[in-house]
Design brief:
By secondary structure, the protein is α/β, with parallel strands linked by helices. The chain folds into two domains: about 110 residues, Rossmann fold, CATH 3.40.50; about 100 residues, OB fold (Dihydrolipoamide Acetyltransferase, E2P) (Beta Barrel), CATH 2.40.50.1020. About 25% of the residues lie in helices and about 35% in strands. It contains seven helices and 15 strands. It has a five-stranded parallel beta sheet, with helices on both faces. A five-stranded antiparallel beta sheet has the order 10-9-8-12-11. The protein is globular, with a radius of gyration of 18 Å.
Length: about 220
């Protein structure tokens, strides 16, 4: 897995770099003390995992993650535990408190799941009862969270699947789908209108959370 480190503290950054070198499953794609430079790097060099500090002077780790394109796995690193709730609200894989120990780092990395190679196909299979139903990915209207399950909505029908929103997000092509809320992923092609903090998708009004609104509006093709 290709990983990126972003931390304005040079000592902390070097420690994480040494942990990456010790990990057979990781390859260091880049290491930055400046989040703006890291974002520029990511435009041409996508990675699988980002290890990012939260408190940085020019841009916080939270703001950087809100500006990301694509769906890399994120592990936050910080000197304070008070950010834990907000970190997981942004769907972070894990949250490491400084000084980070290697065993704790390794445990966080083991939680990362690479997306399956479905981006080259137009189809996905969902289980309906005892039958696997083949769906055209671009026919999906939206996906909703239902506890430990997700609901895949296609042409007025809902298929309930035992998986997580994070896994669903990784399986859907990022050029066509966007997370708008911790509980909803929508198909851009099905959006009818956006008004304040809601999006209407095939006549269904869905909430847009503050966490995801900035990324959604950035990706919208507007005049």
């Amino acid at each position: 897995m290709h990983c990126l480190i972003v931390d304005d503290d040079n000592t902390s950054r070097k420690v994480i770099e040494s942990f990456v070198e010790q990990s057979e499953d990781l390859s260091l794609a880049g290491s930055f003390g400046n989040p703006q430079k890291a974002l520029q790097f990511l435009k041409k060099n996508p990675v699988d995992v980002i290890l990012v500090d939260i408190e940085m002077p020019e841009m916080s780790g939270f703001d950087m993650v809100d500006s990301l394109q694509g769906n890399p796995s994120v592990i936050f690193i910080t000197g304070k535990e008070k950010y834990a709730v907000e970190a997981f609200d942004k769907n972070a894989i894990d949250y490491l408190v400084k000084p980070v120990k290697y065993d704790r780092f390794k445990n966080a990395i083991e939680k990362v799941q690479l997306p399956d190679a479905v981006s080259d196909t137009k189809f996905i299979f969902v289980k309906s009862g005892s039958v696997l139903v083949k769906l055209d990915i671009y026919d999906i209207d939206y996906v909703e969270s239902i506890g430990d399950y997700i609901g895949v909505h296609v042409a007025g029908k809902r298929y309930v699947v035992h998986t997580t929103m994070k896994e669903a997000e990784m399986k859907l092509p990022i050029d066509q789908f966007c997370r708008i809320h911790r509980s909803f992923i929508i198909n851009f092609g099905r959006i009818e209108q956006i008004e304040e903090n809601t999006a209407t998708v095939v006549e269904k009004v869905l909430p847009i959370s503050r966490t995801y609104r900035k990324n959604l509006m950035k990706r919208m093709n507007t005049f």
